[in-house]
Amino acid sequence: MKKTIFSITAVAISTTMLISCGGAKKGGDSGGALSGKNAEKVYVAPGEYDEFYAFISGGFSGQLSVYGLPSGRLFKVIPVFSQDAEKAYGYNEETKPMLNTSYGFIPWDDAHHPDLSQTKGVIDGRWCFINGNNTPRIARIDLKTFETTEIIEIPNCAGNHSSSYVTDNTEYVIAGTRFSVPVPQKDMPISEYKGNFKGMLSFLKVDQETGEMDLSFQIMMPGFDYDKAHPGRGKSHGWFFFTTYNSEEAASLLEVNASQNDKDFIAAVNWKKAEEYIKEGKFKTMPAKYAHNIYDEGTQMATSTMEKDVKVLDPAECPGLVYFLPTPKSPHGCDVDPTGEYIVGSGKLSANVTAHSFTKMLDAIKNEKFSGEAYGIPIINFEDVLGGTVVQPGLGPLHTEFDNNGYGYTTFFISSEVVKWKVGTWEVVDRKPTYYSPGHLMIPGGNSQKPWGKYLLAMNKITKDRYLPTGPELCQSAQLYDITGEKMELLSDFPTIGEPHYAAGCPAELIQPNQQKIYKLEDNKHPYAAKSEKESRVERNGKDVHIYLTTIRSHFAPDNIEGVKVGDKVYFHVTNLEQDYDVPHGFAMIGANNSELLIMPGQTETLVWEPKQVGVWPFYCTDFCSALHQEMQGYIRVSPAGSSTALSWSLDGE
Amino acid sequence: MRTISSIVAVALVATIVGCGSGETREAPPGTKPESMLKKEEPAGKDLGIGPVKKVDIPETIDEALAAKGKETFEAKCTACHKIGKRFVGPDLTGVVNRREPEWIMNMILNPEVMVKDNETAKALLAEYMSPMANQNLTEEEARSVLEYFRTLK
Question: Edge-to-edge strands of the sheet including A428-433?
């Protein structure tokens, strides 16, 4: 004990002496992050609120997580593409249709790029969109309720990666394909990829009132890999830009064979022109089977509709629709600065970050400064579209976002750092290490006309020695930097769920005032709702038994049920009668091959149970609701198949 | 603190019972045990805490308003209150004779603060253990429920 104290003192004294003698610090991060000033910057006092919401995708978890910044506290994991037994998402009868696709029910996806709705190029806090990468889908999350309310499947697409970015006024949400495939699908040799496989870019129109998406049209592109995308904004509004790699059109050993060309392309798509061509009828209608799933807040149920066809434009037949901007080399990030002038391509295999100029692009198109064409799409001369180059800022540039002072910030995967550079002069002004291997980064509003700046969040792919170990797999992490000064300052890092692939953020004040606190019982249009204990009952319809159950602190009505038989299919329709903020009730049934239910105030949810054993079986509330939560339980008597036990139900003998 | 003292009280009672003369006194069937908490009579009128400071009560019952109140009560309150018997919450028969109209409305509209800071409501929570739920009634709805309570003699 004595020894310990002595050694700590010794260390403290020697360290202090070193620092005060101007001794250089090793490592570069711990001193900054541990300093009291930085701790204060991320400290949100008990009862206080965070300044920003951060929506961080869960990558291979299929979900979307909600964090507060600067604290890095996790508030919610919103189930989107994966079933969630905690919230019964994809387990209860109401939400099962949300996960329906043309391949049937799919309980998982790879959730990549959340993007927030915008008005006039400014984030407005209405909806968050996110793409499912594996079975191509786009989901919409309503930010009044923080629930997934719509999922639309994308046909003719594979690896839905250059998604789900929104235009300046949320006119469109974009979904581009990373893997090209035969369109329409057919049985053919893989070796005949070149020239025969196609890459689809999909434009989903958004209803400004409801947010509902509609697959308006697709553009059939050459068989490259369409990696990332961003809309033009401000002066370049009406255009959309997509990075491509594998312009070699390789179908095997892509890490070598798709890295042959010095330059790939950024595809510039004029979507206003596309709208004209659609109006003129220049499209082909292709048969396409894809699911469109919508959750109705009135009936509190999701429905899945199978759509049948889609309008497709061929750029070779639509002059002025698409141009290719040569971009070194296998670019990933495709980022447009707040003014809309510069389109920044981060070449994964390039030493430089390339910025194309929108003004120069228009001039090159007007004066036909083309170096050739690919599949009928003009290729603009590289020098005639190049706006500037950030020279050798680091290794493996991936993604750029912008602050409100004219700077760009780019992640470098290989050299594990974030680099700050000036838009227009292209000079590097600062660099800071990340721990380790960042993919994407996020600045609140950093991909819109109005970045709020202040913070930068880098999302890392590798953790290694940074956290207490948890077996072979460590959680991935996000790191928060203060970007208010000339030099970036690392403030903190915090664990994330799944793979924190990408994020979107905005001030809390855009979302907080619009929060729905309860679902009004009088607005509950669920066909199986019981809106008061008087309406609670049990009905039999052949082998189907419908139990209309109500919950309130702290009892079920009814809580004694008899007349259920082995072989029945029992539907628990549970209505939460509470009308108070933050008082959900849970429902769990012994032996149900299913999840629990978690029912919000004023909501109805349905769990199916198929009793297999004779006996008297309990159910109970799982979400601690009051001092008498332990008493919130009930019994169901299960009689043998064919028994004559009458259907009966009661609460407190009534 | 109050909780602790009541626990001590209960413990004492248990001890007394434990040292009893062997004579068992059973409550007659059907009666509920009395609360061991003293019902303190508040000095002056106890109007409760909340948005309602003064309610004008007409001489005669407004039947239309009471009917509306009955409807609201049955939709939002009957999961915990039954008329004519103690249920999860108290029997509300004659509640207008026990409490001020302002207290009743504040208990409906502001139950979280009431059970925390109003002595009468605190005692009720200690007795019933289930918190009075905030069912998000409007002030008009609470007023109509109060009128309905006036019909429960």
Answer: A397-402, A407-412, A417-422, A428-433
Cα–Cα distance, A487 to A484 (Å, whole number):
8
Min CA distance, A653 vs chain B (Å)? 12
Mean pLDDT of chain A: 94
CA distance A584 to A626: 11
| Any A CB within 8 A of B138 CB | no
Take residue A412 and report the two structure tokens written for it.
Answer: 């470098």
Task: Kindly give, in sequence order, each residue whose CB lies less than 8 Å from that of residue A578, ignoring residues fewer than 6 positions away.
Answer: A518, A551, A552, A553, A584, A585, A601, A602, B133, B135
- Whether chain A has a CB inside 8 Å of the CB on B67: the answer is no
Strand segments (E) across A178-224 = 181-182, 197-206, 213-222
* Integer Cα distance of A326 and A266 in angstroms: 6
On whether the CB atoms of residues A238 and A362 are closer than 8 A, the answer is: no
**Chain B residues close to A628, C-beta within 8 Å:** 129-130
CB atoms A626 and B135 under 8 Å: no
Which residues of A touch chain B, with CB atoms under 8 Å apart? 518, 521-522, 531-534, 550, 552-555, 557, 577-581, 583, 626-628, 652
CB of B81 within 8 Å of a chain A CB? The answer is no
Task: Indicate yes or no: CB of B130 within 8 angstroms of CB of A554.
Answer: yes
pLDDT at A309: 98
Distance of CA A59 to the CA centre of its chain: 8
DSSP A390-446: E-S--SSEEEEEE-TTSEEEEEETTTTEEEEEETTT--EEEEEE-SS-EEEEE-TTT
Question: What is the structure's pLDDT at B34?
Answer: 54
Sequence-ordered strand ranges (E) for A496-641 = 503-507, 537-541, 544-552, 555-557, 560-565, 569-576, 585-589, 597-599, 604-609, 615-620, 633-639
Cα dihedral sign, A366-A368-A372-A377: positive
**What amino acid is encoded at A153 in this protein?**
E
| Residue A516: count of CB within 10 angstroms of its CB | 16
SS3 A558: coil
Q: Which contacts of A362-365 are long-range, i.e. CB under 8 A and separated by 24 or more positions?
A: A365/A320, A365/A323
Other Cβ atoms closer than 10 A to A84: 20
Q: What pLDDT was estimated at residue A12? A: 40
Q: Which of A552, A580, A581 sits opposite B80 (nearest CB)?
A: A552
Report the C-alpha gap between A476 and A472 in whole angstroms.
12
The answer to whether A174 touches A192, Cβ cutoff 8 Å, is no
- A-chain residues near B75 (CB < 8 A): 521-522, 531-532
Task: Kindly state whether B89 is in contact with chain A, defined as any CB-CB distance less than 8 angstroms.
Answer: no
Scanning every residue of chain A, which has its alpha carbon at the shortest distance from the alpha carbon of B77?
A532
Rg (CA), chain B: 18
Number of Cα atoms under 13 Å in the Cβ half of residue A413 = 17
pLDDT score recorded for residue B55: 96
β pairing state of A438-442 and A455-460? antiparallel
Q: Which of B3, B6, B135 to mutate to test the interface with A (most CBs of A within 10 A)?
A: B135
Residue A382 has pLDDT above 80, yes or no: yes
pTM, entire model: 0.88
Laid out side by side, the sheet with A633-639 consists of A597-599, A585-589, A615-620, A633-639, A560-565, A648-650
pLDDT per position as a tens digit, A616-639: 999 999 999 888 899 999 999 999
E strand segments, A58-178: 64-69, 73-78, 100-101, 104-105, 115-119, 122-132, 137-142, 147-153, 160-166, 172-177
Lowest model confidence (mean pLDDT) among A37-41, A570-574, B7-11: B7-11
Instruction: Note the pLDDT tens digit of each residue in A55-87.
Output: 999 999 999 999 999 999 999 999 999 999 999
